[in-house]
């Protein structure tokens, strides 16, 4: 079965381990043997049967946005299996101009991690970006964490109501650690969800329940490397009690449609 991993992260080799350690510390998950390098992602992803990888960057500081986007663009040129997203920061100047640059570089979307970037999904400073990408590029958002309020699903619901043509991919079933709240708020919207960093935390049968509520056509596979090993995450996915049609839809069809991959 074809498999697109819609949720991965890589870093320059010289800082990859430090960046990975920082992310694992942020989530208190400990060392998982993942290093955050492009080479390891390709190695582990190939073992898992992944054919394409969506690379998602995050800029903790606004002055790092352009350099990070340049890095992702370069990696997609070096490796045909990589599909790159750009990133932005609410505090940066010229956010609309950076969206234009992201499009010009051939990147396929925008990624934001409100919790680590320390701004809310509905921050007014982001509105020019939402206007610039509406009907143009999808936005992937880290969603949910009971420790913070930046990425609460209620904030995404507000944005979706304000920008009805905005295509959002709401990571982690729409709300890591607040799955039912996310479902109540987002089930009747047009956003898409991924399964990353969630299946291992849900009681047995819960992933299938949410998939059936949302519809497989609104779900996509994601491993969240280097938080987790793609081999293990693919196995978790394959063990779900879903129909072959649902599995195929989540494995690659949703991602192909949203990202317009040929």
Structure description:
There is one protein chain. The chain is an alpha/beta fold and 262 residues long. The chain has one domain (4-259): Metal-dependent hydrolases (TIM Barrel, Alpha-Beta Barrel), CATH 3.20.20.140. The protein has eleven helices and nine strands. It has helices at residues 16-27, 38-48, 65-78, 95-104, 114-117, 127-133, 153-162, 179-186, 206-214, 230-238, 244-259; strands spanning 4-8, 52-55, 82-84, 86-87, 110-112, 139-141, 168-170, 192-194, 219-220. Helix 9 links the parallel strand 8 and strand 9. It is globular. The model has no long low-confidence stretch (mean pLDDT 96).
Query: Structurally, how many domains make up the residues?
Result: 1
Corresponding CATH superfamily? Metal-dependent hydrolases
Protein structure class = alpha/beta
How does the major sheet shape up? 6 strands, parallel
By CATH reckoning, the class would read: Alpha Beta
Measured by DSSP, the beta-strand proportion falls in 5-15%
CATH architecture: Alpha-Beta Barrel
The third-level CATH topology is: TIM Barrel
């Amino acid at each position: 079965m074809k498999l697109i991993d819609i949720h991965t992260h890589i870093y320059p080799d010289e800082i990859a381990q430090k960046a990975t350690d920082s992310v694992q510390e942020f989530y208190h998950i400990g060392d998982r043997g993942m290093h955050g390098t492009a080479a390891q992602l390709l190695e582990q992803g190939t073992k898992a049967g992944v054919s394409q990888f969506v690379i998602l960057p995050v800029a903790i500081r606004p002055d790092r946005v352009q350099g990070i986007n340049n890095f992702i663009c370069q990696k997609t040129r070096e490796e045909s299996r990589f599909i790159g997203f750009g990133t932005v920061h609410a505090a940066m100047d010229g956010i609309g101009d950076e969206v234009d640059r992201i499009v010009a570089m051939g990147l396929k979307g925008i990624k934001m991690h409100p919790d680590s970037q320390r701004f809310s999904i509905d921050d007014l400073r982001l509105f020019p970006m939402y206007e610039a990408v509406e009907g143009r590029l999808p936005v992937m958002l880290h969603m949910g964490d009971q420790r913070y309020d930046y990425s609460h699903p209620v904030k995404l619901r507000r944005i979706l109501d304000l920008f009805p043509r905005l295509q959002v991919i709401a990571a982690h079933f729409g709300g890591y650690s607040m799955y039912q709240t996310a479902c109540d708020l987002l089930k009747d919207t047009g956003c898409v969800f991924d399964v990353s960093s969630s299946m291992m935390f849900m009681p047995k049968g819960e992933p299938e329940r949410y998939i059936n509520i949302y519809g497989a056509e609104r779900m996509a596979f994601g491993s969240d490397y280097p938080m987790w090993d793609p081999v293990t995450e693919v196995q978790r996915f394959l063990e779900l009690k879903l129909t072959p049609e649902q599995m195929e839809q989540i494995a690659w069809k949703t991602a192909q449609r949203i990202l317009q991959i040929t």
